Amino acid sequence: MDHRWSSGFRGAAGGGRAGFMLFVCLLYCLCFRSAVGQATVAVVQSGGSSHRPPPPVCASSPRQGVIDSTLYHPGDAACLMKSIKKYSYQEFLKDRPMAATVLRLSFHDCMTKGGGCDASIFKPGEIRDPDDINEGVRITVPVITRIRQRAAKECGVYPTMADTIARAGAAAIAFSGLADPTTAGFLLGRRDIADNQTGDDPKTLPNAVEAFDVILRKLTGLGLSLREVTVFSLGGHSVGKSACSHFKLRLNNGSTPGGCRKPVDPTLDPAFACKLAKLCRDPDADVSFDFGTPFSLDNKYFKLLLKHQALLRIDQAFATHSGTARFVREYAKRPKRFARDFLKAFVQVELMNINGPTTAPPKYYY
């Protein structure tokens, strides 16, 4: 016990009553403080809903392609931005390749013709289409659901699923070594696709077996320049893996004693083709796009293209096409330019056709 306090209660003659009153006062104050503390904890644990303003009034007709600032109160938007990133990081730390998969999920949600970044990717017709176009990103469904639920619990408000997917994709970029896309203007404000909508056609996504010019037309038709198509497509392939089935036709039909046959695709480095052929003896194998830095979003994949060591045929085509070859050479030499342009392109992609006529305002806020 602190003797400075105990000596006051003993007192001198005639000071007993004063000491008793001081004791009662201290006891009352301590009890009052405890009661206030418990009440405060109760309010915090309940999300503070008793002191919150009414949910925001969403715009009746938002502008398509423009962030809808009416979806959240400003403080709630700031909380969700941090919270979704935090819980995305927790998922990526448990499963490092998940960052690349979540980044691809955000692309697949946004880049279907006539659709946009509206969480339609989670509609059954898209995520489980008969051609299994979205098979590789299907594992993200429970991951994104957990991130959204945890962020909602922490902030006391529900983010839209579209914002959760987009922000998790942005977090994947930061987790993989680039700056957070918030530094390039990334914001929340995407409405989800309406319940009565069936979703988009996943077959309108760029396909690895299509002619390169067809793929370029698809991507530029979404509003991207050739520079943006180059930095975005190849930059996205600087992390993650591809199934052997996506590039096995570029290889050879087997090996000869002492070496490999020439690859079917003359644009593929023969030694690299031999390495891939060995890795793909298991037809279900996955191969990293970039063997050197498979988890880092950097410009190394552009350098591999200049060595004819791109995994996909369409990726290698960027290095020889008249409209894109100069950008490949530029980004191979200038890592800072790559990082800056990739962030800008990501922010633009995450605005594609958002808040269009097939979306709806959130049903629940708190």
TrEMBL record:
Q: Does the keyword Calcium apply?
A: yes
Q: Which domain of life is it from?
A: Eukaryota
Q: Which InterPro entries match?
A: Haem_peroxidase (IPR002016), Haem_peroxidase_sf (IPR010255), Peroxidase_pln (IPR000823), Peroxidases_AS (IPR019794)
Q: Where does this chain mainly localize?
A: secreted
Which catalytic residues are annotated?
108 (proton acceptor)
- What intrachain disulfides are recorded? 110-117, 244-280
Coiled-coil boundaries: none
Could you say which residues bind heme b here?
Answer: 237
Q: Which Pfam families match?
A: peroxidase
Q: Name one GO biological process term.
A: hydrogen peroxide catabolic process
Gene Ontology cellular component list:
extracellular region
What does the cofactor field's note say? Answer: Binds 1 heme b (iron(II)-protoporphyrin IX) group per subunit. Binds 2 calcium ions per subunit.
Family recorded in the similarity comment = Belongs to the peroxidase family. Classical plant (class III) peroxidase subfamily.
According to its UniProt entry, the function of this protein is described as:
Removal of H(2)O(2), oxidation of toxic reductants, biosynthesis and degradation of lignin, suberization, auxin catabolism, response to environmental stresses such as wounding, pathogen attack and oxidative stress.
Q: What is this protein called?
A: Peroxidase
- The source organism is Chara braunii
Q: Which gene encodes it?
A: Prx06
